[in-house]
Amino acid sequence: MKDDNISQLSAKQICKMLDGVLVGPETIAVKGIATLADATTFDISFLGNDKYRKQVLTSKSAIVLVPHNFVTPPPENRAWIKCDNPSEAFIEITQKFNSYQYIPACGIHDSASIHHSVAIGNNVHIGAAVILEENVKIGCESVIEAGSYIGPNSQIGEHCRIHPNVTIRERSIIGQRVIIHSGTVIGSDGFGYINSSDGHKKIPQSGVVQIDDDVEIGANVTIDRARFDKTWIKRGAKIDNLVQIGHNVIIGENVIIVAQAGVSGSVDIGNNVIIAGQSGVVGHLKIGEGAILMAKSVWSRDAEPGVAYCGYPAVPRQTFWKQAAAVQKLPELLKRVKSLEKEIEEMKQAAD
Amino acid sequence: MKDDNISQLSAKQICKMLDGVLVGPETIAVKGIATLADATTFDISFLGNDKYRKQVLTSKSAIVLVPHNFVTPPPENRAWIKCDNPSEAFIEITQKFNSYQYIPACGIHDSASIHHSVAIGNNVHIGAAVILEENVKIGCESVIEAGSYIGPNSQIGEHCRIHPNVTIRERSIIGQRVIIHSGTVIGSDGFGYINSSDGHKKIPQSGVVQIDDDVEIGANVTIDRARFDKTWIKRGAKIDNLVQIGHNVIIGENVIIVAQAGVSGSVDIGNNVIIAGQSGVVGHLKIGEGAILMAKSVWSRDAEPGVAYCGYPAVPRQTFWKQAAAVQKLPELLKRVKSLEKEIEEMKQAAD
Amino acid sequence: MKDDNISQLSAKQICKMLDGVLVGPETIAVKGIATLADATTFDISFLGNDKYRKQVLTSKSAIVLVPHNFVTPPPENRAWIKCDNPSEAFIEITQKFNSYQYIPACGIHDSASIHHSVAIGNNVHIGAAVILEENVKIGCESVIEAGSYIGPNSQIGEHCRIHPNVTIRERSIIGQRVIIHSGTVIGSDGFGYINSSDGHKKIPQSGVVQIDDDVEIGANVTIDRARFDKTWIKRGAKIDNLVQIGHNVIIGENVIIVAQAGVSGSVDIGNNVIIAGQSGVVGHLKIGEGAILMAKSVWSRDAEPGVAYCGYPAVPRQTFWKQAAAVQKLPELLKRVKSLEKEIEEMKQAAD
Predict the structure, then answer these.
(1) Mean pLDDT of chain C
(2) Which end of chain B lies in a sparser environment, N or C, as judged by fewer CB atoms within 10 Å?
């Protein structure tokens, strides 16, 4: 529990960490991080986007990370640290302020229910009321927080963080450095029935879910187990809250899926695809590498690599905006056509 | 546990509570509440909407709350109670039937895991398998139901109701009389990455979530913690099930957000705004006080105060309906234009 | 725990189970199930759809269930089993491979919190950290998995499967053979307020949720309790993940609701209706038996029995596709009308 152990860092220390160039007094110290707009005189901030350039001077922040081309000198009692990429440098500094990151201590809580066959690595945290079923494996340095359930024969890699009240069903395979947020369900049954004369008959969902290294999954997400084989989230994919992933879906490397989007069964999504919020993908499609689906849109056909799509059904973005602009002109267009019809009628009568 | 302790109330008692005017026998008694359509002879009901006027006479309900202008007398063995606002009066009566409201008894369940540093007010219920981490504070008269998790340094005000299996992460600040339904996650990390050469790099989410007095939050909702500072739900806001609130969002006082809607990061929503079901708000927008977003629509630009919007992208409601009506005429319009083209061709040929 | 007890079945055994006709060696044995495309030489597969006919021969699967009209003989070391309905036969076989289905052993875990008034049938599993409140009833052969909460006076029928971390609030009525997946919340309060001068005033939600026999409900679903009376999911309905069901809704028998769809309060949905993913239904509507709502569409008016609807607001499917096709022609139509206007202007000038 390091949650209120606020540390302090001087401009000199930070400059050394970042291998930057200090402009201003090296003794200035900060206790926290903030945006330029919100900073107090105890905060460090950064200039990540040129449009906020003016805020560097008006901000109260004691230290600002700036790019090398920022030449205005700092006012009294403030300092700049020039660095190659202020945004990335800021992340590095943020991580030094451990006080903002709650990291549970190693150890196994008395109230956890752990089957005798479970294998647990070194330096692991198992929280209160955690349930680890038969043959579960937990890798070194992983944190399984309170109330989480891990089903039989599932394995969690090293350096993972499973937040409170997560459900990971049987035979799931989770890689290294995976983060799963609260309320998420991994390995629920895929949605499949055969319609028979006495109602819908459940198709057994016998496969698993596999989640590769460096994946992060938001809160209250659902990822269904495969009918056979596996539902597969590949390395580096990032999934936001309340997303639905159907059975047998493949999510490529470094894919981004924003909140409340849904991917139907057996879709194959290439690497580096971006699926924006509240959008959907119809089942069994193939989505090319780097394709983009805009917010609240629906892919109902295969998507070309690298193309951005929008609308329902989704079409390439430029086409969508042309259509949307045209729809806004529609009420006026109806009037114009009516007036044309009238003119032609008049011309015909005049001709007669 | 008062759950099956059904009480009984007479027309005389109810009339006195409501300061109403009784028409009919004062000894008639009821044991429960129901709509006019569903009521049995042991129920009280109400006329809340003029279109149900005829149902007052055909209903079986023993007692009906009616407005003062309802002049038809009750049949034998039934009674009317005339009052200023039958809908509000009915809520008051409903609350007398404690039997329908499950209120857990005060006390701390043996199976709860409570850190020794936790501060708990008087008359509190802490359910089975609840987890209260370091430095948590629980206000007087609050109910924390079974399986809920409250992270380090979080505080819950007085008279709150946290339903079973809620997750409230570290450093959350919850006001007075707040209700949070099951499965909801408060304080999950905001969704933010910097795209680097070796994949997406997580931006630390160092802020908190603050929820003010009299807020109610539905089931399986997700509210992300801020990158810095706070995600802020202001006094009296009501949020339905499966809603997503991104990091650094501000939700104004008495805002209504209906099920499955989503609000992207850093949106600032004014007081009394209404966001209907399955709608979405793009990031960084400012939504004027009292604006309305209709169901399944998307605000992609700032919204004017008091204006109702609809569609994707959302436009003022009247504009949307004109466009929607025009779209329905489109197939016919295509034919009309084709026929105009033909006529002009014929006229030109005739002219040659 | 039968999870890694892989059994093996011979062609002879399977043929006998299915009362099929074996073509090929009866000693061939399989250890698992797979699609034709994914199968190894240890798997059994099936031909469920004529379009995969060619895959039967190219597949590696040792045994394939085929229809009687499949006449091509199997290659060496492979076998066909001819049967009336290969899809249904395959489900039957899948269920023989118990190794793929995790069924927790009977018994009550020490860490469960069970009120002394609870009535539990024979051969029941009550998992770790389960909470059963006052007067709960659990039917024979039911499985209540770890971390699930069942509120006061709720009853669960026989042969039910409640997966880990489910929340079932007070007075819920669950039938026989009901399956509920993790994270789902049954009986949260309906979303109802009366707008008063000092903010929104909560309308008590005094009803219950009733779920009839053979219903399956996915993960992280929310089903609200009724204002009065009941929210009612009828026999055989199947509900996918992240679906929202409002208060007082009636879901007919064998209805299918796909992921992330939402049904507003007091909607009455007839039997055999299909509601596709991410679609929505406006409150108080009546949906005729067998009607279909396509993905991401919204019913804003009552729906006719047996008709398929699409769009926002939803119109009959054929109308929608005509409109969608017309919208795609809109930008071109604008040009055509402009050119007509120009021609008429020229004709008028020529006439002058």
Answers:
(1) 92
(2) C
